Structures are given as C-alpha cells and as structure tokens.
Amino acid sequence: MVIPRHVFVFKPSRLPAVAEQLKQRLGPGRAALLEQRLDPTAVDQLLQRISRIPDAQLPGLAAELLTREIWMLVLALPRQEDLDLVKRCAEIIRLRWRLAFGSRAWQQANNHPGHPGPLALLRYALEKGQRSWFPGSADRLPIIERALASPDLVPALGAALAQGEEPYVEQARACGVAPESQLWLAVRRACLLKGEPQAYLREDPSEMAEWLAELREEELVTFADRYLQALTHDQYQQAVMSHLFQRLGMPVRDSRLNPRWEKVSVSSRSAFQKWWNARELSVFFNTDNERHRFWLQYVGQMREVYPAPYVEALIMVFSRIVVVEFAHKGNAAYLYLPRVFLRVFNSYSQAAQVLRPSRLKLRGFRRDRIIHSGSWQWRAKRLLSKYLAEGDGDGATLLR
C-alpha cells in the first residue's frame, strides 16, 4: 500500500503534479475518458458550492462528496486561477484523501495486525492529530492510542480490553475493530490469555468456551492456569470447565501421567480437582441434599471422586481412607484403606466380573461403616476426623 506524501502536506502549487500522478495511476485510457466526461456546468456548480461554504464545514463536505466529484476536482482544479478557491478545493481533496487512506490503513491493520507498514502509518497519523482515521467511538480512542504506542499492538490492546467492564464484543466494536478480522481474533486470544477475573466473569460462558476451541493446546494450558488461579471455586463456569476437561482431561497427582497438565501449577490442578469433586457430588446426590451438604465439607480433601462402574455407588478417595456411598440412603457407606480397596477392586476388574453393590460391601475388608440414621452426621464427622487427622499418606490412584 503506497501512501503519497501529500496526504499530510498538500500545497496548491502541487496540484498539477498531483493531477498528473493520478492520471498515471489511472492509466492513459481511463484518465482521458474521465476528462472527456467532465461536464463544465457540473464543475462550475461544484466550485460555486465550495466557494460559498464556511471553512468549518469543509471537512463535512469532503466526506459527503461523491468519488466522481472528487475526481472532477482533481482533474479540473489545475485550470483554475482563483487562488482562494484553489486553496479551499485543495483542502477538500486533502481531507478526503486523509479519510480514504486512513480508512484503508485501519482496514489493513485489522487484516494484518502484525504488519509494520499500516501500524507505522497509523502512529504517524496520531502524531499529526488525524483522529478521523479511526472509526471507533471518540471515548475509546485513548485505548487505541496507548496500544499503538506500544511495540506490539495485539498484546497491548488485549491487556487494555481485558481490564474493561463490558464484554469483549462490545468493547472491540466500540474501538473500531472489525468483527472476525485477524485483529479481532488475535486481541480476543490475548484477552483470554491475559485476562483479569472480571474479564472472565463478564463474558457469556458458552461463548467463551467456543473461543477456547480456537486456542492451541499450549495456549489452552496457559489459559487454564490463569483462569483457575484468577477465580474462586464458586466462580468457575460450567461451560469453560467442561471444555478444559474435554481438551486436557483430568489432572493427576503425578503430572507425568497426564503431560497436558504438566505445565499447570499444582495449585491450579488442585483447584480443578476440587471443582470436579464437587461436580460429581452434585450429580450423584442430586436429590439427597442431606448427604450432599455433608460430603461437600470434605471436597477439598478428596483426591478423587468418581462413580463406580455398573453400580449406583460413588467412590470418594481420601489420603488414608476410601469411602463408598450408595445411591439409596438405606445403604451404609463403607470405609476401606486405599491399598486394600485397590487390591480387591482390581481383582474384579482383572477377572472381567461385573461389579455389583454386594462386591462393594466387603465386610471382611472394610475398616468402618457410616449408617445414615439418627445424628449420623455427628458420628461420621468424628469417624472421618480420626483418619483425616493422620495426615497425607500414600493413597493409591484407583482404577476406574
């Protein structure tokens, strides 16, 4: 994209040279055709209109004139002798070209945000006070100015919009960013990766999950770490967390078993596990508020929570105890030592036997039971405190 120098400095004495330059760009055939089509009456009427209009209205007229009328001025103006009229016409042409080239420069920046050419031109325009080049609302122009002042437009604009209170779509449009352009997508990605808590909470979770689908796996890992640390447990959004699970799987204590989580901090992995535990409790105890509230107290101490295969039972793994709860409240909850439960559980799995409720009620192997009658919560709390107080042990990761 070539931008003539006279976009910024336009002198009446340059008009013949400018007209000749434009003729060359149009080609001899088209330039000759335009000159032949010049209507002297139309030219006179346009010049009279320009001579009568106040100076303050020249920018509006420059934007209002048809392209055909602008070419009419360019080709006819070198023949004029009235210097004041020439100056006014030159000002209109200069303003119109600034608008045209400014719009093109911003369009190029939207389509190629990493290309230095359009960005350099836009920075120069701001230095010269050419704010009309930017289609966004006037109150958002300072955001664009600060972003252009930085070495890299995309991260700077992304960080600025991440701190705003409005959803990304509204902010980007107000800044004049073209929807679904390369700049739009790149800045949205930067918002996700550099977001503040309010930036995540202001967005529609379903829309944000769709945006996450566009991230590469290493970018999603970066997002997961930031998101899980930026928000609290009760602020996590179902659609976003479900997408993380679908793409990254479950974090495990030994991150080498799931390398996708290896670069995520331990605190973030623990936060995800806690959310998952709470989710499993909510699904399993869907209609049993009493047991749901009780076990929710221990969600942060659970290493794993998952439903038993083929059985309406929930397995909750702590550091030194495994608790098996059954869907029907009439069944007691069974407590096992992790290694004992793992050995027995694996024996059924290896023998390809279908797991039945009775096989999770192993009287000879259980460590204790919780019977749901009377003040069972008080008794269960005392019982669990005995095992949980023993500290963090070597609880095994159970097969599912």
N-to-C order of helices and strands: HHHHHHHHHHHHHHHHHEEEEHEH
Give the strand order of the largest sheet, numbering strands 1, 2, ... along the chain. Answer: 1-2-3-4-5
Mean pLDDT across all amino acids: 83
Poorly predicted segments: 1-10, 391-400
Number of helices: 19
Describe the model:
- The protein is mainly α and 400 residues long.
- It has four domains: 1-109 and 120-128, no CATH class; 134-200, no CATH class; 204-284, no CATH class; 298-400, no CATH class.
- Helices cover 55% and strands 5% of the residues.
- A five-stranded antiparallel β-sheet has the order 1-2-3-4-5.
- The longest helix has 29 residues, at 83-111.
- The relative contact order is 0.05.
- The model is unreliable at 1-10 and 391-400 (pLDDT under 50).
Question: What keywords describe this structure?
Answer:
400 residues; mainly alpha; 4 domains; 5-stranded antiparallel beta sheet; 19 helices; 5 strands; rod-shaped; disordered N terminus; disordered C terminus
Short structural summary:
This protein is mainly alpha-helical. About 55% of the residues lie in helices and about 5% in strands. The protein contains 19 helices and five strands.
Outline the secondary-structure elements:
Elements: H1 15-26, H2 28-36, H3 40-52, H4 58-64, H5 67-76, H6 83-111, H7 116-127, H8 141-149, H9 153-162, H10 168-174, H11 182-193, H12 197-201, H13 205-212, H14 217-230, H15 238-248, H16 266-284, H17 289-296, E1 304-307, E2 313-317, E3 322-326, E4 333-336, H18 338-350, E5 368-370, H19 376-388
Antiparallel strand pairs: 1-2, 2-3, 3-4, 4-5
Helix pairs in contact: 1-2, 4-6, 6-7, 8-9, 9-11, 13-15, 14-16
